[in-house]
Amino acid sequence: MADGIDVLLQLWKEQREADRQTENQRATLTNIIIIVVAAGLGFIARAGLRSSMLVVTIPMMVLGFYGAFACLKFHERCAFHVAQARGLRKKIAEQFPDLKIEAALRASSREQRGRFPRLRKIRLYMVWITLHGAIAAAGAALSVWIIA
After folding, report:
1. Contacts of 101 (CB under 8 A, 6+ apart)
2. 72 with 125: CB under 8 angstroms?
3. Sign for the pseudo-dihedral over CA of 128, 132, 21, 39
4. Cα dist. 12→3, 42, 51, 83, 90 in Å?
């Protein structure tokens, strides 16, 4: 019996680690994009908005769109790993019904919903997509400003 639980726990741990790795990859990509965009904006601020700056603003827009798409993909991978871990957790809870794992998790979820009724409706991946969308919009707006 202990061997079966050890296997379930190891599988659960692997799924949670994969979820964490995906989130770390998203954070790293976002940081790189922010650094590149900040450098580009600094370059534009120093040189001024002129047609030659389209080589900065258009890639800024592309980076924003790419970041938003990547965040969607990272969200999909996270959702997969969380679902896998949830299934394994339920299997573990079935092995140890006296621990009342699922009941404890439901109680903490209810408490969290009570403490943050509005914030819980905002999905974290949407926050990141909005940030990348704002980068794309800034690149597009600056490009239009230069062209106009």
Report:
1. 89, 92, 93
2. yes
3. negative
4. 14, 45, 54, 10, 10
Angle of CA points 28, 30, 34, to nearest 5°: 120
Q: How many whole angstroms separate alpha carbon 128 and alpha carbon 110?
A: 25
SS3 148: coil
pTM: 0.90
DSSP string computed for 55-97 = HHHHHHHHHHHHHHHHHHHHHHHHHHHHHHHHHHHHHHHHH-G
Spatial CA neighbour of 64 closest among 40, 90, 92, 95:
40
Q: What would the two tokens of residue 86 be?
A: 């949830």
For the segment 21-66, what is each residue's pLDDT rounded down to a tens digit? 999 999 999 999 999 999 999 999 999 999 999 999 999 999 999 9
Is residue 130 within 8 Å of residue 30, measured between CB atoms? no
**What is the percent of the chain where pLDDT is above 90?**
97
